[in-house]
């Protein structure tokens, strides 16, 4: 299960049809949007009115809104995607992610760019961490997000016959020169370590860089790099469809 805090997150979890278990509302903080949410709660769900100090203890946020709720997490498995490979495949692979905010931001961008899903390889971060949920603006409720070992994700990439585009600031080929119109896995490493060599050894692997101006900066934030690559893929695919 997970806790959704605030009107936006609770609304989007309900809109996604996630199973609701408990609903908490603070009358002294609740506005019309909070009360409107309460009206959507099924009579079989426990509704608790709580005082301001209690809400403060329940909430992860420093200045919580008037509602929070407990939902079932959506469950996705690699086995759900074992059908024949698709030319529309566009997967984001986050390797060794350690920052919940980055994971949430990557999920948000992946959803906005119409990606197939987010694979978390050897991650130590829960996609339903409160910071990840907040950074994703609720995208983690509907975007397929699957965690596992690097070997499991590599095997999936091979079975789906995906071309691996591994982000590497030292690569000679820039992301603008890479063909992203076919089935692709965009692979982003941890900011402190980058990608392990085995991601470059996939049969259809290519290393691509995002040009950086000379200076003290030697890499980009992981979620920013993911956004640049995902939207380049979306641009190329849109142009390819109109040709």
Order of strands, widest sheet: 7-6-5-9-8-10
Q: Kindly state the percentage of residues in helix.
A: 25-40%
Structural class: alpha/beta
Helix and strand pattern = EHEHEHEEHEHEHEEEH
CATH superfamily of the largest domain: SPOUT methyltransferase, trefoil knot domain
The biggest sheet amounts to:
6 strands, parallel
- Assign the CATH architecture of the largest domain: 3-Layer(aba) Sandwich
Q: How many whole angstroms does the radius of gyration measure?
A: 20 Å
Beta-strand content = 15-25%
- In the predicted model, the low-confidence regions spanning at least 5 consecutive residues are none
Structure description:
- The model has no long low-confidence stretch (mean pLDDT 91).
- The protein is α/β, with parallel strands linked by helices and 243 residues long.
- It contains 7 helices and 10 strands.
- The strands form 2 sheets. It has a 6-stranded parallel sheet with strand order 7-6-5-9-8-10, sandwiched between helices.
- The longest helix has 21 residues, at 222-242.
- Helix 4 (100-112) runs parallel beside helix 7.
- Helices cover 31% and strands 20% of the residues.
- The protein has helices at residues 6-15, 32-38, 52-58, 100-112, 130-136, 150-159, 222-242, and strands at residues 2-5, 20-25, 46-49, 67-71, 90-95, 117-121, 145-148, 163-167, 184-188, 205-208.
- It folds into 2 domains: 2-71, Ribosomal protein L30/S12 (60s Ribosomal Protein L30, Chain: A), CATH 3.30.1330; 78-242, 3-Layer(aba) Sandwich (Alpha/beta knot).
- Strand 2, helix 2 and strand 3 form a beta-alpha-beta unit.
